[in-house]
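User: Could you go from structure to sequence for me? I need the amino acid at each position, not a summary. Structure tokens:
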């Protein structure tokens, strides 16, 4: 299923066609070259002072890290996410070695996740960003150092038809039109 963005101007097809489905093909596997390429795109994201504060925990369906990530998820995320081919925990080093805060770390990690998402789409994968998970559980499960803050879990894989979700409410949400706040509402000052 495609849901092209209804944008005010023409966008690159990768950006216009990207969206966050929840229906994944539970039999599809992601290749190591594709997974490596997706992570390599994230590695080359811009960052403040070239600090590259993003960190990842990478799990493929069937391994223990994957099960731990699914277990950490809240609500309906536990229902659909096990069919993804891979789950990637995105985290950021938010404290510098001298103990001061790294103010741009979350922004920088978001840029890395964004490029990861675009590269995944380019490679025929879909990505769903998950914020509904137990942060304390992933810190413990993956032995994250105190200076590392978990941000999101990304589900990556091949899209399946919406009805594969089973639950009528989830199917309805999957097929609903994409919406966005109007561009004018996002601009606090200035004019186009």
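Assistant: Here is the amino acid at each position, in order:
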């Amino acid at each position: 299923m495609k849901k092209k963005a209804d944008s005010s101007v023409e966008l690159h097809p990768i950006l216009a066609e990207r969206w966050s489905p929840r229906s994944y093909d539970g039999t599809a596997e992601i290749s190591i070259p594709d997974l490596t390429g997706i992570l390599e795109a994230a590695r080359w994201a811009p960052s403040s002072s070239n600090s590259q504060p993003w960190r990842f925990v990478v799990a493929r369906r069937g391994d223990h890290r994957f099960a731990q990530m699914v277990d950490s998820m809240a609500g309906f995320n536990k229902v659909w996410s096990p069919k993804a081919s891979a789950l990637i925990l995105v985290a950021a080093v938010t404290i510098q070695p001298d103990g001061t805060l790294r103010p741009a770390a979350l922004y920088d990690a978001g840029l890395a996740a964004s490029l990861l998402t675009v590269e995944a789409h380019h490679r025929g994968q879909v990505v769903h960003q998950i914020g509904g998970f137990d942060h304390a559980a992933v810190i413990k499960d993956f032995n994250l150092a105190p200076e590392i803050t978990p941000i999101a879990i990304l589900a990556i894989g091949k899209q399946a038809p919406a009805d594969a979700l089973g639950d009528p409410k989830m199917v309805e949400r999957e097929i609903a039109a994409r919406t966005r706040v109007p561009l004018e509402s996002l601009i606090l000052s200035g004019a186009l």
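One structural detail worth keeping in mind: The mean pLDDT is 95.
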